[in-house]
Amino acid sequence: MGLCQSDEEKTGFEKSKAIDKQIRQGAATDERTVKLLLLGAGECGKSTVLKQMRILHNNGFTEDEMTQQKRVVYNNTVTAIHQLIKAMQQYQIKYSSPDREVDAMVVQDVIKQGRESEPFTPELAVAIKSSKPSDDYFDKGAA
């Protein structure tokens, strides 16, 4: 600019140049940024995809985040097994052996005590692995 500029105009011009520079830098950064829109119904796995991307492309999770995620996995597993047990009772599906009924009681006790988000005890782990309907249920084609 010329000699006829006031101090305010010079200051304004310098601020304008600084803003323009920031915009150019932001545009360069935005060009390298990939934006992804995940659409889907609730509970269909959108956040799971984001977590997997984070694990693959970032440094993963902090210790606190991993502890929290483990609790979610424990909870989901115990809750799912409990739902299966309730369905077996509702539809009068027999267990493969009387021992499996004991296993079902172990899972139900964990739910009653509110410990479904805690790490599995050895007894609970065996109960989860063993909980299944009798084999003849599947042989009849009822599944």
From TrEMBL:
InterPro entries: Gprotein_alpha_su, GproteinA_insert, P-loop_NTPase
Keywords associated with the record: GTP-binding, Lipoprotein, Magnesium, Metal-binding, Myristate, Nucleotide-binding, Palmitate, Transducer
Lineage top rank: taxon: Eukaryota
GO molecular function, a single term: metal ion binding
GO cellular component: cytoplasm; heterotrimeric G-protein complex
GO biological process: adenylate cyclase-modulating G protein-coupled receptor signaling pathway
Binding sites annotated in the UniProt record for Mg(2+): S47
Binding site for GTP: E43, C44, G45, K46, S47, T48
Subunit architecture: G proteins are composed of 3 units; alpha, beta and gamma. The alpha chain contains the guanine nucleotide binding site.
UniProt protein name: G-protein alpha subunit
Organism: Ancylostoma ceylanicum
Chain's gene name: Acey_s0075.g937
